Amino acid sequence: MKFELSNRAKADIKAIVRYTLENFGSAQAEEYIDGLYYSFELLTDNPKIGREWKAGRRRYIYRMHHVYYRLTPESVFVTHIRHASQSPL
To answer: Of 31, 7, 2, 13, which is closest to residue 81 (Cα–Cα)?
Structure first.
């Protein structure tokens, strides 16, 4: 199984990188994003590790971010990523 990112998820990652760079520096931004991508890989190996959320979607928590995804026959499809303080959409 592989993971795929929606356009919204890609935009969310860019926003996370931008925020982390501005507030915590490049080393922290790199470490955080590496960990986020590791989470995507973890989900491909254990797709049901995240909790059921709603409408066939699941949620996995990585530090302060919630990764929302759904399972397809071929992949873990990440729909969006939100900070814990944000509305899940």
So the answer is: 13
Query: CA 88, 72, 40: angle at the middle one, nearest 5?
Result: 60
Structural domains for the chain: 2-83 (3.30.2310.20)
pTM of the complete model beyond 0.90? yes
Strand segments, DSSP code E, in 1-89 are 2-5, 51-52, 57-62, 65-71, 75-83
Give the separation between CA 88 and CA 81, rounded to whole angstroms: 8
| Cβ proximity of 84 and 64 under 8 Å | yes
CA distance readout (Å), 88 to 1, 25, 26, 57: 25, 26, 27, 12
C-beta of residue 52 within 8 angstroms of C-beta of residue 41: no
Are 53 and 46 in contact by the 8 Å Cβ rule? The answer is: no
**Rounded mean pLDDT of 30-54?**
95
